[in-house]
Amino acid sequence: MGRDVVFAYSKTDSGDGFRVIRSRDNQLELGEVRELQDSKPVHGDIVKLSPIAGRDQLYDVEVLMEGPKTRSTTGPARVSTEVYRQQWEAIFGSKPSTDPSELN
Hints:
By secondary structure, the protein is mostly beta strands. It has a domain at 5-65. The chain has one helix at 82-92, and strands at residues 5-11, 17-24, 27-34, 46-51, 58-65. Strands 3-2-1-5-4 form a 5-stranded antiparallel sheet, with no helix packed on it. β1 (5-11) and β2 (17-24) form a beta hairpin.
């Protein structure tokens, strides 16, 4: 696994955090970081940032607690029944063909 770092490039619109570019697992991600606050929801990983010597705005990331995973699939939730999924596909399934010979 590669190094996990963030580059803080600007303040958020509200001024209470920073917009960042995060590099981890050979992927770039855009996001925002803010201090934890009591009674406020957390929308991602809880991390500790450590400045990298000689590199302004660049920080090593230590993940203290991973945030919830997002779904990477489309369509109905996996907790649904097979009949529900079949009906979903019948209604919202693949796009119709654009082949003119198949029209009407």
